[in-house]
Every structure is written in structure tokens, then in C-alpha cells.
Specification:
Arc Repressor Mutant, subunit A; alpha+beta; globular; 4-stranded antiparallel β-sheet; Jelly Rolls; 11 strands; 2 domains
Length: 234
């Protein structure tokens, strides 16, 4: 069995994993298998069978869906996951098919805790189901906040908050964890995430660029002044 302890610094920079009881944390690491993805590779697709719990160690994962008929389908980009995110817990709980697509936005390194092995371990250690439920509760809180923002906030405020959220790992990093300043996301993808046109997104980003808050590059954005970006979120 490969030694995955080298990933502990990244995993412990995440709030959820760092607060797990040692028994559960060591069990997850013991069951995990490392996986690599290249940009564009599918990790799993909507309606596919449960395949376990994942931890993103390096890279970025796009979580998306589609609406409409096949010939007129529109993509809904929900979130761009960055390390040290854990995800895939919904299917762990209900054993049902995946709810969305997960693709690599850039080269990725992940840890996969296989579904059947995790189920068997939790059957023998049922007290740790609550620890897994905390992970899902965090995601539910984030989803409610996002729904509220889509309804009541202006596009510039939604964009600023989404960039801050991505930089800070959507609240999943510990207070001492590092922020991610270079985000592998295009203007079109960012527009999909906040529900506005690409033209509106371009205008907002150019305003931020003029204030020296962000740098716009092909296929990515760099946050130059995170405190200033946070101030715009108020």
C-alpha cells in the first residue's frame, strides 16, 4: 500500500479534515488511492454510480450540470473546487447516482476513498457518520448562501464574493491555511457561475483590473489585492 502521509500538510490545511477524530482521519488515508487527471478528464458524470469520497490535493475540479434538451442544452457551472476540498459525500450517504458532472479544469491529483470500502468501515464505526455529515452540512450552508446571493446581490458584488470564496477555498481552509491567488477559470466560466453574460463579467473584471485588484490572463485570473477584493464584498 503506498504511503500517502506526504499529503497530510495539504489535507490538514482544510478545516474539515484537520478537525476529524484521529481514528477517522487515519482510516480515510489508509483506504485512499491516489488518482491523476489531465485537463478536461471526467472524474465522474451525472447519473453515474457512486464511486467514493474524494480529496483534491492539487489542481482544480469543475462541478457542473446541464439544462434543456440535447440540441439546446445549457451548461450550469456550479463551483470550481480547489485544494484541500473533500467532495462526493452525497452519494456516500444515499448510495444514489451522482447529481452533477466533475471534470478536471487543470492537471489534478486526488485521493479517492472507494465507496464500498468506506461503507464497510462506517458500518463498523457508525459514530463517524456524524463527522461525514458535518462535511455535507458545510456544503449545504454554502449552497443556501449562493442561492441568496443570486437573488439579492448585484452582479459586481456576486463576482467579488465568488472570487474571494474561490481564493479562500469556500471556507474550507483553516484560518492558517494559504489562499489561492491564481484561479484557473475563464471569463465565460465565471459568467456561468454567477449567472450573468460574458460581456457583463468582462466589464466588471476590467473595472477590477483598473483598480489593480486582479490581473486578467488567458484561461486564468490572478488576485493581486485580496484585502481590497474582500472590502468590495461588504
Amino acid at each position: 500500500m503506498p504511503d500517502l502521509s506526504r499529503f497530510l500538510p495539504v489535507l490538514n490545511s482544510g478545516r474539515w479534515f484537520s478537525q476529524l477524530p484521529a481514528e477517522f482521519a487515519f482510516a480515510l488515508l489508509g483506504m485512499a488511492k491516489s488518482r491523476t487527471l489531465q485537463p478536461g478528464d471526467a472524474l465522474f458524470l451525472r447519473d453515474s454510480a457512486p464511486c467514493g469520497l474524494y480529496a483534491l490535493v492539487a489542481g482544480a475540479i469543475r462541478i457542473s450540470g446541464q439544462s434543456g434538451q440535447r440540441n439546446d442544452a445549457r451548461e450550469a457551472l456550479l463551483v470550481m473546487l480547489t485544494p484541500p476540498q473533500w467532495f462526493g459525500e452525497i452519494s456516500v450517504f444515499d448510495g444514489s447516482a451522482r447529481t452533477h458532472h466533475a471534470h478536471a479544469a487543470e492537471a489534478c491529483l486526488l485521493l479517492q476513498v472507494p465507496h464500498e470500502e468506506l461503507q464497510a468501515w462506517l458500518h463498523n464505526h457508525p459514530q463517524h457518520w456524524r463527522d461525514l455529515a458535518v462535511l455535507m452540512a458545510d456544503k449545504l450552508r454554502m449552497a443556501f448562501v449562493s442561492m441568496e446571493e443570486q437573488t439579492v446581490l448585484s452582479a459586481p458584488l456576486r463576482l467579488a464574493r465568488r472570487l474571494v470564496g474561490m481564493a479562500q477555498g469556500y471556507g474550507q481552509r483553516t484560518e492558517n491555511g494559504t489562499t489561492r491567488r491564481v484561479l484557473a477559470i475563464t471569463q465565460e466560466e465565471l459568467a456561468l457561475m454567477i449567472g450573468v453574460s460574458r460581456q457583463t463579467t468582462n466589464q466588471i473584471l476590467n473595472d477590477l483590473k483598473a483598480q489593480h485588484i486582479v490581473r486578467i490572463q488567458r484561461g486564468e485570473l490572478e488576485i493581486l489585492d485580496l484585502p481590497a477584493l474582500r472590502a468590495l464584498c461588504q
